[in-house]
Design a protein that fits this description.
Elements (H helix, E strand, L loop, with lengths): L9 H13 L8 H14 L3 H6 L1 H12 L15 H27 L7 E4 L3 E4 L11 H27 L10 H18 L1
Antiparallel strand pairs: 1-2
């Protein structure tokens, strides 16, 4: 089977976390993974990003499939259920909203910048070496720390379900996939009407 350039986008996920590890400001690059799938869904009415270009899904396929780091077992039915997918999406949107609100608070001077990555939104990992204070506005750095935490946490969840179940189990309840699927359903309903 012939390989295409987009078959190597799994390396993007690794590069993203490596760059952010050395300079937290690279976390802003993760907005590409946030905005591009929305663009495909809103303007194209499709999920081509998820199916072809998602570096995270490809990373899980590479690690779990090609590198055999997955037990390759069926996931529990409820992980792909509608209530879990939309509940997980609501939870992630709440976390993203919290990041935006904290960024606003830092930008308005109501809160000071904390230089820490939070794993699973509970455990602080000091990350002072990855940011040079004063190089950018504190609100820019605050968003970087928050967004990197969100991306890292979701990737760790994806790696856990990849190891326990099938390689791309994460894709069955990925918040971006759920959001783009909802957008595509709305767009296709409009075309039919």
């Amino acid at each position: 089977m012939k390989k295409h350039w987009y078959d190597y986008l799994w390396m993007w996920s690794i590069l993203y976390f490596a760059l952010g590890f050395f300079n937290i400001l690279f976390a802003w690059l993760g907005m590409i993974d946030f905005l591009v799938p929305l663009g495909f869904a809103i303007f194209g009415g499709n999920k081509h990003f998820c199916n072809r270009y998602c570096g995270r899904g490809q990373l899980f396929a590479q690690l779990g499939g090609a590198w055999k780091l997955s037990r390759n077992r069926p996931a529990p039915w409820w992980l792909a259920s509608r209530w879990f997918r939309y509940g997980f999406l609501a939870f992630f949107l709440t976390m993203f909203g919290s990041i935006l609100f904290q960024t606003y608070l830092v930008g308005s001077g109501a809160e000071s910048l904390t230089e820490a990555i939070k794993l699973l939104w509970l455990f602080k990992v000091p990350f002072g070496w990855a940011y040079t204070a004063g190089t950018v506005a504190d609100w820019v750095a605050k968003f970087s720390f928050g967004f990197y935490s969100l991306m890292l946490t979701s990737t760790l969840i994806g790696l856990a379900v990849m190891a326990l179940y099938r390689p791309r189990t994460w894709c069955s309840f990925c918040p971006m996939g759920t959001m783009t699927q909802g957008i595509c359903q709305l767009k296709n309903r409009e075309k039919v009407s």
